[in-house]
Q: What sequence folds into this?
């Protein structure tokens, strides 16, 4: 019809955009005001908590409680995981052995604890004694080498291998002429954990797994899950090659025992640690 006016499309779009901006701006403003209100409430609460903490500190100063608390904290042992690893790592030996078997050369790799007090490395017996390599009973290795971190390897003959005080599953390797690098690493069984470790205590395992840091100690960590037949059951990973190594109770920084690799199926392994207390009976 003549005289009718039709609003251009661009003008209609512009009006819609302006209207949407106004509505959106309103809601944004309301949200910002609510945010400011919440922040102010948080700051108020923090201020009140800070004032209360100051009052408590002043009260402790007044009756000597703050000094007493500081003395208690300072007197507690600082045996952290890092401190335990730093102390025990130099004592952990890498053990490699070989046999001339019926079907050629056989080899074994494991770990051990160096005892400078008696020039001996103790380890799991399957590291140095192998079944089925020859006809007859399990055979001691024909030769081995023992090496501490940063030290030169020491050659061992079959005559240097024996059992450890009749303890099943434990072998001893005598180091007849330890080099100076071994002599300077002081170690004995005086650090054996005197009491049974309760379930839930933190434990760390040090050794030389076949898959791990080449030529150096690998560390795993876990907790004690149970105890059975002189063995602690632990959640810490014990890989092949870590058998015979060192298990340390972290919070008490004492020697918990000898870790043993046990295969269950093809891929899983169970963490078992021979209680160190059976070594000193």
A:
């Amino acid at each position: 019809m003549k005289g009718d006016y039709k609003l251009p499309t661009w003008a209609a779009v512009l009006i819609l955009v302006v209207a949407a901006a106004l509505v959106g701006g309103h809601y944004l403003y309301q949200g910002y005001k609510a945010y400011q209100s919440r922040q102010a409430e948080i700051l108020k609460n923090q201020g009140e908590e800070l004032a209360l903490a100051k009052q408590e500190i002043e009260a402790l100063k007044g009756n000597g409680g703050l000094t007493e608390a500081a003395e208690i904290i300072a007197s507690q042992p600082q045996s952290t995981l890092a401190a335990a690893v730093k102390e025990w790592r130099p004592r952990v030996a890498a053990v490699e052995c070989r046999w001339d078997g019926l079907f050629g050369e056989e080899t074994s790799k494991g770990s051990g604890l160096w005892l400078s007090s008696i020039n001996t490395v103790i380890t799991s017996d399957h590291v140095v004694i192998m079944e089925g390599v020859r006809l007859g009973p399990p055979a001691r290795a024909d030769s081995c080498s023992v090496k501490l971190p940063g030290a030169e390897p020491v050659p061992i003959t079959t005559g240097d291998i024996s059992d450890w005080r009749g303890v099943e599953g434990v072998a001893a390797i005598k180091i007849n002429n330890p080099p100076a690098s071994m002599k300077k690493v002081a170690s004995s069984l005086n650090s054996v954990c005197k009491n049974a470790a309760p379930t839930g205590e933190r434990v760390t395992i040090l050794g030389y797994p076949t898959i791990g840091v080449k030529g150096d100690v690998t560390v795993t960590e876990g907790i004690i899950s149970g105890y059975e037949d002189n063995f602690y059951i632990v959640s810490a990973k014990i890989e092949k090659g870590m058998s015979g190594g060192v298990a340390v109770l972290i919070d008490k920084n004492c020697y918990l025992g000898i870790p043993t690799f046990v295969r269950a199926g093809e891929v899983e392994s169970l963490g078992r640690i021979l209680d160190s207390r059976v070594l000193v009976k």
Notes: The chain has a mean pLDDT of 81. Helices lie at 9-63, 65-75, 81-88, 125-128, 180-183.
